[in-house]
Design a protein that fits this description.
Blueprint: E1 4-6, E2 16-18, E3 57-61, H1 66-77, E4 81-86, H2 90-102, E5 107-111, H3 117-131, E6 136-139, H4 155-176, E7 185-189, H5 193-196, H6 202-222, E8 228-234, H7 241-245, H8 248-252, H9 270-277, E9 288-291
Parallel strand pairs: 3-4, 3-6, 4-5, 6-7, 7-8, 8-9
Antiparallel strand pairs: 1-2
Length: 299
């Protein structure tokens, strides 16, 4: 057994967050949620929507699992229709769609490699064809491949990390922009590593820093149009990237170095994405919300 601390939920299985995790590793990127032990907590059953996103349509990249799944479910509770984009994690994506549909919303699944610009254009067009409009873009997909040294990061890995983690954000934002209007929102997922760095995640951290600058610059560029651009910077969160990236021994200690002495769960990130998509944040653009377990950063 692994230790627990109290958390949210009305059912016993939802009332606890694991503090430490059993050692485990997955050999594929970006990882599969259904293979994780324990399963990430992607929904707070006590969260009650209040129609903050009623009649809105959102695209969420990496929406099959992890933070993306949690955001999709929270958005559905707030009344949004959802398109989730993923690479090839079909089982995880189906589980996310099932939950969104249980909540009475529509969930369009699109399998696509967003490293390719033409496929990003196709994702947006499929969404428009299905829902007729677009209001929210959540750029969330990522890969994370630790290496002990800069010397171990090949040109192929560097290219793959940047194409996945930041090129896709450019491509998706550019494809979505003609369909966005005043009041629309782009939300990017960056990371605490953009501010702190990470000894084994040099290329990953570099992309997350690029996302911060992309967010701030695009917010300035779109300010006159009324389209807001913001970001969320998670700390360590229990998602498929963790067992897919780190060794089994590293997983055992994951998140224990935060001031709150634990990793976060995906559902704990979702309210920040709701806030940035809703009218509540109408005077906020070019900013980063840090949901990181108490890590102090200079933002």
């Amino acid at each position: 057994m692994y230790p627990y601390i109290p958390s949210y939920g009305t059912e016993n299985e939802c009332k606890t967050n694991p503090v430490a995790f059993p050692p485990q590793h997955q050999d594929q990127q970006p990882g599969l949620e259904f293979n994780m032990v324990p399963q990430p907590i992607y929904e707070n059953p006590d969260y009650q929507g209040s129609s903050k996103l009623a009649n809105k349509v959102a695209i969420i990249s990496g929406g099959d699992s992890g933070i993306g799944r949690a955001v999709a479910i929270a958005y559905a509770k707030e009344g949004a229709e959802i398109a989730i984009v993923y690479l090839n994690e079909h089982r995880d994506a189906e589980e996310t769609r099932n939950r969104v549909e249980q909540l009475g919303r529509t969930c369009l699944l699109i399998a696509a490699d967003l490293r390719q610009e033409e496929l990003c254009n196709n994702v947006v067009q499929q969404t428009i064809d299905k829902f007729k409009h677009l209001d929210i873009l959540v750029n969330n997909q990522a890969i994370m491949i630790p290496q002990k040294s800069l010397l171990d990061i090949t040109a192929e890995q560097l290219d793959n990390t940047f194409r996945t983690n930041i090129y896709s954000y450019f491509y998706m934002s550019r494809a979505a922009l003609p369909h966005l209007s005043r009041g629309s929102s782009i939300i990017n997922t960056t990371s605490v590593t953009a501010y702190e760095g990470h000894v084994e995640l040099i290329d990953y951290s570099a992309t997350k820093g690029a996302i911060v600058s992309f967010t701030r610059s695009l917010a300035l560029s779109l300010s006159s149009s009324g389209v807001r651009v913001n970001a969320v910077a998670p700390g360590p969160v229990w998602t498929p990237l963790v067992p897919a990236g780190f060794s089994a021994e590293q997983v055992k200690k994951f998140g224990l170095n935060t001031p709150l002495k634990r990793a976060g769960q995906p559902f704990e990130l979702a309210p920040a994405f709701v806030f940035l998509a809703a009218d509540d944040s109408g005077f906020i653009s070019g900013q980063v919300i840090h949901v990181n377990g108490g890590v102090m950063v200079n933002s």
